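Below is how a single chain appears once it has passed through the pipeline. First comes the sequence as given, then the structure the pipeline wrote out for it. We keep one example in the README because the format questions we get most often are answered faster by looking than by reading.
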Amino acid sequence: MLNHVGFGISNFAHSKRFYVAALAPLGFSILAEGADWAMIGKGGAGRLWFGIHTTIAKPVHVAFTAESRAEVDAFHAAALGGGGHDNGGPGIRALYHAHYYAAFVLDPDGHNIEAVCKPQDA
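Resulting structure:
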């Protein structure tokens, strides 16, 4: 099981705006930050780190668990409002599972950020 995920970004202000907006509907907030990095988490546990790097790795895909389809919908709307770009609106992804409800948004650096409602909770 992963403890946390970290990756590089090119513009801290743009990425901070995106992640604060996108992950708020899922209950995440900034737990710690410096001049060019931040740790976002839920319930006091940091799960996502992002910071300025001189080179940006190829885009990554990070999926966050949502408690309901409504949270997936809220994530998608908030992420777009926070500067993200649509990469697949909320809906069933039968390719993965008959009840796999997810939405995908590209962050300002092209990282694919997903919110998914767990199939057993659908």
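The longest strand covers residues 45-52.

See the next section for the split statistics.
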